[in-house]
Amino acid sequence: xxxxxxxxxxxxxxxxxxxxxxxxxxxxxxxxxxxxxxxxxxxxxxxxxxxxxxxxxxxxxxxxxxxxxxxxxxxxxxxxxxxxxxxxxxxxxxxxxxxxxxxxxxxxxxxxxxxxxxxxxxxxxxxxxxxxxxxxxxxxxxxxxxxxxxxxxxxxxxxxxxxxxxxxxxxxxxxxxxxxxxxxxxxxxxxxxxxxxxxxxxxxxxxxxxxxxxxxxxxxxxxxxxxxxxxxxxxxxxxxxxxxxxxxxxxxxxxxxxxxxxxxxxxxxxxxxxxxxxxxxxxxxxxxxxxxxxxxxxxxxxxxxxxxxxxxxxxxxxxxxxxxxxxxxxxxxxxxxxxxxxxxxxxxxxxxxxxxxxxxxxxxxxxxxxxxxxxxxxxxxxxxxxxxxxxxxxxxxxxxxxxxxxxxxxxxxxxxxxx
Length: 419
Description:
By secondary structure, the chain is of the alpha/beta class. Helices cover 40% and strands 22% of the residues. It has helices at residues 8-16, 34-48, 72-81, 102-110, 131-134, 149-155, 160-170, 174-177, 182-205, 210-222, 230-241, 247-259, 288-294, 302-316, 366-373, 407-412, and strands at residues 23-27, 56-60, 89-94, 115-121, 139-143, 263-270, 275-285, 320-331, 337-350, 353-359, 384-389, 396-397, 403-406.
């Protein structure tokens, strides 16, 4: 494994947003590479573009030596003191949620014509999900994920098949990817989960019953790709753990996990009725290594792992993603009309673009093929329909215009959906 991992996709977004008058906010799960992107890769770009070093102002609010600067009455005067002339100053501020009253402070800096502000943040509780609104229309969000499979393979010393097995087992957190041995990866993931993610969630939200929250995380880890809701989860807690936890508390814990960017919730959409259905939903993990660490590397079903990886890839490419639901009426063996529900794994939209995607690890028989395509034949619109498998030799369209491709072509080619 090489020692440098390129994040060109995100670096390009930062470069394109330079000097646009907005506050650039890089959000994402802790340890996904935000600090490296901003204070190494982007700083290098600025330097190579001719920006003087004294016009690049850095502050990492999560470092002990900078604790005093979390007070805006200390930081803001210090920031203003850095402005020595009328040239453009680039502020690279790390873990901005630790700065008190950071919205006012950043708006104050951005209001100065020669300040271009770039920040990172790791918690949606302090960074509203509507960044633009929170910053009075001046927030410009770039959401960052752990390494995609293509980013992982660019640094991996091996073939794509071995790389895939490692990726779905240990994930794409850069620190883990750069660790040499499996034992070290396991130990690092376990430590990160306990000492970084869970501790952060507990402290920020003043959680008293840590065991309940961790048990919920275990349940969600075991159920990736499965429909569930707080009421179902509450019944599981009651029957398995004899717990008196309420669905309201479960909902609150789920929000905490989402705020920490550890999981994302995906809603169901009625394709024919053109409306959201509501619960139950599905939950996917932002990193498979963290998910697997949580359940001690049990339940490593490649079918669920592939579905989670596909979801993350779609989100990394900027798509909004829903689960598709189709209600059909068919006659049973006695000729009696019966209502059935067919599912499309993902409906992904971006602007005027829309795709339907089914994740099918193996299409080993005509029956399996028919099962995976059945929902597609009930959809009347003309948007592209894709099936992603592990055993399709190369991308091709079947007689019904459905695109079939293998998981490697999908993940390694950013234009794969446009075949």
